[in-house]
């Protein structure tokens, strides 16, 4: 018998002063049995960074045809395809062909090694952006994971802060590849 996803609920308050975006999102997060708290929280952080009215979680790990999160327009065209972790270059090139923009957030200790191995194969992908979050930071974020969460994300001058109760984590992004 297959294991079922665990459902998490998050009330996410976003204050993104860089984009002028202020909103509350009620998120239902299906955590696949093979997904860690760390990876799930990275999906939440990526969602907060790109939050919009039409941004949604994809099926992620359980479906190879969908990203971890995406934004589609009213014609179903994919404006943003978002991945968390270390996807292979073939998956990223396929995503770049399907979406206007593709963004990846890596977070493992070996992220720099992963990137060195695949970056030359992704040079032609002008609509791809790859950012890394230190594994120490992602592990701190994992400690915030609970079945029901009240989260606050503040973004100002490129600085990102995620808070839950008395816990707060500063998230610094290391750019591996920028759009263009």
Automatic annotation (TrEMBL):
Alphabetized CDD domains for the sequence: YaeQ-like
Domain of life the protein comes from: Bacteria
SMART domains named among the record's database cross-references: YaeQ
Cited Pfam families: YaeQ
InterPro entries, alphabetized: Restrct_endonuc-II-like (IPR011335), YaeQ (IPR009822), YaeQ_sf (IPR038590)
Protein name: YaeQ family protein
């Amino acid at each position: 018998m297959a294991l079922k996803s665990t459902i998490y609920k998050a009330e996410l308050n976003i204050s993104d002063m860089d984009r002028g975006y202020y909103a509350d999102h009620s998120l239902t997060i299906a955590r696949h049995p093979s997904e860690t708290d760390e990876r799930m929280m990275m999906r939440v952080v990526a969602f907060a960074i790109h939050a919009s009215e039409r941004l949604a979680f994809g099926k992620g790990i359980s479906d190879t045809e969908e990203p971890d999160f995406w934004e589609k327009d009213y014609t179903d065209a994919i404006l943003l395809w978002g991945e968390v972790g270390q996807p292979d270059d073939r998956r990223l090139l396929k995503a770049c062909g399907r979406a206007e923009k593709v963004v990846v957030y890596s977070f493992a200790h070996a992220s720099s090694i992963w990137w060195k191995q695949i970056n030359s194969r992704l040079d032609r992908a002008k609509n791809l952006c790859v950012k890394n979050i230190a594994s120490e930071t992602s592990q701190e974020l994992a400690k915030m994971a609970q079945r029901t969460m009240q989260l606050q994300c503040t973004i100002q001058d490129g600085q990102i802060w995620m808070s839950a109760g008395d816990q707060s984590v500063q998230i610094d992004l290391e750019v591996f590849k920028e759009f263009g």
